[in-house]
């Protein structure tokens, strides 16, 4: 069993090519008893973005705050609080913050993808 609060989980500022103003919090995964899966929270500050990239694993996303865009399937689509997305493995994708407030989303992936 695991119970915590988002304010108790440290964030890691992400750096690398194509990453701007991005932070990741690893919320639940194998260390908390959820074998095989990881749930992370990404927060993109104003002007923030993830790199446009692809990888072999799928992931599930739920937008928990703000507004942004999701590049997926060759096009950019608006997303906002309450939006959901399934991104198949191998599909090029990118999240971008298009608002003046934080844009935050949950991302669930196979545990080996959360490194």
TrEMBL record:
Metal-binding listed as a keyword: yes
Signal peptide region: none
Record protein name field = Cupin domain-containing protein
Cupin type-2 domain residues are 41-109
Q: Which PANTHER family match?
A: CUPIN TYPE-2 DOMAIN-CONTAINING PROTEIN, OXALATE-BINDING PROTEIN
* A Pfam family assignment: Cupin_2
- Keywords, A to Z? Metal-binding
Q: Which InterPro entries match?
A: Cupin_2 (IPR013096), GPI/OXD (IPR051610), RmlC-like_jellyroll (IPR014710), RmlC_Cupin_sf (IPR011051)
Q: Which organism is it from?
A: Heliomicrobium gestii
Query: What's the domain of life for this entry?
Result: Bacteria
Entries under CDD domains matching the protein: cupin_TM1459-like
One MF annotation (Gene Ontology) recorded for this entry = metal ion binding
UniProt keyword Metal-binding present = yes
